[in-house]
């Protein structure tokens, strides 16, 4: 597609349920990032994928969070047993080659509300 | 990797005025990028300045970089109501991984 696509755009769930958020990066972009942004706050780095290398998971806040990227393209962020503090906008970004310019192209985000 | 710290946290100006936002960082960088965010959705890349550049222009945007002071500034000239948004800087460190980290940003309000 022309840009980074994220789905769903909005998700309301009950505490304790699992959620999956999807990111479809720009075709040909080897690097993919997930960020979390709580209301009125900055972006928290969660996880980074680069090609076939092992992902940088250093930003994942707990073992309830996991992400995978299949075939070097689409990525899924999974949050298990959701808590109210997981409520946030989850932003995905991709870049052509982070070693060169590092310019990120963001999707519109998935707004998660945990009741 | 490091994150930039934007200053001020909030800025309110009238249309036609200039807006200046500052960014400070801590360690050596390859480049520094500025992004804009409308209404808490996706960020849009505005401009990238490399460590060997001191000033860069793009339309009404002017970015400066002072590596000796580890700081950058973003100037928006002749501001418009449509410039209302949050602005983030993202310094790309030399030796600390590939992830870009973002601070809390500067929230700019431009009133007609």
What's the structural blueprint in terms of helices and strands?
The complex is a heterodimer of chains A (115) and B (112).
Chain A: E1 5-7, E2 10-13, E3 19-24, E4 31-37, E5 43-50, E6 65-69, E7 75-79, E8 88-95, E9 105-106, E10 110-114
Parallel strand pairs in A: 2-10
Antiparallel strand pairs in A: 1-3, 3-7, 4-5, 4-8, 6-7, 8-9, 8-10
Chain B: E1 5-7, E2 10-14, E3 19-24, E4 29-37, E5 43-50, E6 55-58, E7 61-66, E8 71-76, E9 85-93, E10 106-111
Parallel strand pairs in B: 2-10
Antiparallel strand pairs in B: 1-3, 3-8, 4-5, 4-9, 6-7, 7-8, 9-10
What does this structure look like?
The complex is a heterodimer of chains A (115) and B (112). Chain A is mainly beta and 115 residues long. Chain A is 0% helix and 46% strand. In chain A, the strands form two sheets. In chain A, strands 2, 4, 5, 8, 9 and 10 form a six-stranded mixed sheet that branches. Chain B has no helices and ten strands. By secondary structure, chain B is mainly β. The interface between A and B is medium-sized, with 29 and 25 residues.
E-strand count of chain B: 10
Structural class computed from helices and strand pairing of chain A: mainly beta
Low-confidence stretches of chain A: none
**What radius of gyration of chain A results from the CA coordinates?**
13 Å
